[in-house]
Each structure stands twice: as C-alpha cells, then as structure tokens.
Design a protein that fits this description.
Blueprint: H1 3-17, E1 45-47, E2 50-52, E3 59-72, E4 78-81, H2 83-87, E5 96-99, E6 101-116, E7 119-142, E8 152-163, E9 167-175, E10 178-184, H3 186-189, E11 209-218, E12 223-230, E13 244-253, E14 256-265, E15 270-282, E16 285-294, E17 314-323, E18 328-337, E19 342-353, E20 356-366, E21 377-388
Antiparallel strand pairs: 1-2, 2-3, 3-6, 3-21, 4-5, 6-7, 7-8, 7-9, 9-10, 10-11, 11-12, 12-13, 13-14, 14-15, 15-16, 16-17, 17-18, 18-19, 19-20, 20-21
C-alpha cells in the first residue's frame, strides 16, 4: 500500500474519532449567545464587540482595517520605465527608474457565534479589496541595426498602479474544534507566522491559501493539537483525492510555549517540519526561535513543496518584541536558510491614537547564488499606516 493511502486513511480515521470537546479560538472576545427563546427585535450588546442579530440567537461582529503601505529600495521597491525616454522618438531607448511600491487595502471581517448542544457554532470571514502597484509590459520599437532590416522590439516590465481583484482570504465554519472552509494552512497558523514584522516571509514566500477540514483539540492544561486535511492553491492544488496533510502539537503556559508542526505535500510526496519556542522573558520583552526542515531540499525542487519554499534543506528564524512605551513596540526578526539567504527586518509599531498605528520598517536581504544567481546584499524600507476598526 502506498504512503498516500496510509496517510489518507489515518487522517480520516483521526478526524472521525475526535469528539466535540474544546473550541478553536477564532475572533477574540467572541461570546456565544445564550439559548433564550425571547430575543428582542432591536440590537443587543453581546460583549466583545458583538451584537445579537435581531430576531436570532446569533451574535455578530463586523470589523476590519484600512491600510496604506509605501515600500522602497532594492529589496522592496519597484521599477518604472522612464516615460519621457519612452515617448521621445529622437531617443527611443528604454530606461528603468526606481520608484515607490505602494499598496492600499480595505479588509472587511465578519464573525458570528451562537451556542448549540454540540458547543459554540462560529463563522469567520475576511475579504481584501486592494489598489496596488503592479507591473505591466511596455514595448519599445527601436530602429533596425542595418538599413532595411527588421526593427528591434524591446519589452520592459514597468510600474502600473491599478485595482487588484478582490480576494477571499478566510471564510470558514467552526463547531467546537472542527473547522471547514477557506483558511491559511495550519503549517503556518498553528505555531505562528514568524516575528511581528511586516516583511516576515522574505525567504519563505509561498504556501498560505488553502481550503481545509481541520480539528483542533485544546486541553485545559495548555496542551493543544491540530490535524488538517488541505487542498492547497494555484500550482499547489492537490492533483488527486489525496489531500495535503498538516498536523501539530503545542504546549503553552504563562512563560511562553513550545510546539511542532509537520506538513505532507501529496503532489510531490514531500515533507516539511517546523519547531518553535516562545519565551515571555519579562512584561516588556518576548523572544522566539523557530527552525524548519524539508525532505526535498535540492535547489531544483525549490518551489515544489507546498509547505516549504525556502532554499535548501533547512531554515531558521529568531526574533524579539520589546515594549518601549505604552504606545510603541520594537520588533526584530532574523531568518537564514541552507542556500545562504539572509533576511533581517526591524520596525517600531507606534500607536498614534487608539486604532491608528504607524509602523516604519527597514529590511536587509542577502541573496543566494543558488537562487538569485548572486550573493548581493540589498536594502529596503516600508512605512505602514493602518486604521483598524
């Protein structure tokens, strides 16, 4: 029997065997609506920002944010073709300039919760509407090299600000610990994405979106575990009835947490694992270390594994967050992989007024000869303005 069949059978059996005990912690502050028979028709506060949907036993919360990011530098900026050179017929040579890479996002979130005999019934959705600095091809026709010869056609990718297609980033149903729908892979979400920096995935850029069926068990002693059957997305979409599989365990206490997660890519029969430790050193300081390993680390397999998009066999992260004042937090993250990619990001998140945060961030990346074809060090910067509601 092949390994895919064994894994699929084990995963399905495990999901069938779990009870409805425990509930995943979706939106913070959610309180299940009491099963009263005489709900009033006007809006009643459920607590935690939730309100009863009139005439129902369900509590609803609507939230979100508007965000403006400005990126610059070799690591984060973008190239734009020189328009004057482009339209000047006397000098039709293409020229690219460095320019801003700007992004504006409106994120809309909804969450519902109600009490049932099987535990809290929840839903969560999050949709993005974005206006981005994308790239589009510009074509320049140059004179022929010899009289009567064919003209020379050159195409450049240039900055092109436009609306991006709306995206559905989360839309799932949760009953107890069972979750079904559109989410991000448990391989990232269960342990945490990485540090509290804007650019936390510079050398691990792929492997987020998926539809899934997962179960999370949360014990009273700080122990939790997850099993997730996943479809992947785009080029990582499963190509048979065998799902990608992610599973993990975590132990959390007041001092911090320890955890590990594993992912199996069903398309390429490949594995990846991560382990992470978080420590609350002081009321003002927290630190983390995390490491990852993949089974198919040869450079020709770089983008094959849904759960591992770093270079080589292994990757490591370390980071810290320090509370500077009651309004400002400093964050640092360093990551390094087997292909000799290095990324460092540092920022200060400053809450100007409640609900409005400004985060300037600086980024350094050292390229890999195996991946980028050079080992150049490049810099970039981001400033983020975000109004959450």
């Amino acid at each position: 029997m092949c390994i895919k069949s064994l894994l699929l059978g084990a995963a399905v059996a495990a999901l069938a065997a779990v009870s409805s005990a425990g509930a995943a912690d979706i939106p913070a502050g959610a309180q299940a609506a009491p099963a009263a028979d005489d709900q009033d028709s006007y809006v009643i506060d459920c607590g935690g920002g939730y309100f009863y949907i009139p005439g129902s036993k369900t509590c609803l919360r609507i939230s979100g944010y508007v965000r403006f990011d400005a990126d610059a530098g070799d690591a984060l900026g973008i190239k734009g073709i020189d328009r004057r050179m482009f339209y000047d017929s006397s000098n039709p040579q293409g020229k690219l300039n460095d320019t801003w890479n700007l992004h504006t996002r409106f994120a809309l979130r909804t969450a519902t919760v109600s009490e049932t005999e099987l535990g809290p019934l929840r839903t969560y959705t999050e949709a993005y509407f974005q206006y981005d600095t994308n790239t589009a091809p510009y074509t320049i026709t140059l004179p022929p090299l010899t009289p009567g010869g064919p003209p020379i056609v050159e195409t450049y990718n240039s900055a092109w600000a436009s609306s991006s297609n709306p995206t559905l980033n989360f839309a799932y149903i949760e009953l107890g610990g069972l979750r079904l729908g559109k989410d991000e892979t448990a391989f990232r979400t269960f342990l945490g994405y990485a540090g509290n920096v804007v650019n936390d995935d510079i050398i691990e850029p792929n492997g987020y979106d998926t539809m899934l069926i997962s179960y999370t068990f949360t014990g009273k002693n700080g122990l939790s575990a997850i099993l997730s059957l996943e479809q992947g997305s785009a080029e990582y979409t499963i190509d048979s009835y065998t799902p990608h599989i992610a599973g993990g365990v975590k132990y959390a206490q007041g001092w911090g947490s320890l955890g590990a997660v594993a992912g199996y890519d069903a398309n390429f029969d490949a594995w990846a694992v991560k382990a992470r430790a978080d420590f609350n050193v002081h009321d003002t300081l927290s630190v983390f270390v995390m490491g990852g390993w993949r089974s198919d680390g040869d450079i020709e397999n770089l983008n094959n594994n849904f759960y591992a998009s770093w270079g080589g066999d292994w990757i490591g992260w370390a980071g810290a967050s320090y509370l500077l004042t009651d309004k400002a937090i400093a964050n640092l993250q360093v990551s390094f992989d087997d292909s000799k990619q290095l990324a460092v990001a540092a920022n200060v998140a400053y809450q100007l007024v409640p609900g409005f945060t400004i985060t300037p961030e600086v980024v350094y990346k050292k390229n890999s000869n195996e991946i980028q074809g050079n080992d150049d060090g490049i810099w970039g910067g981001t400033i983020r303005f975000q109004r959450a509601f």
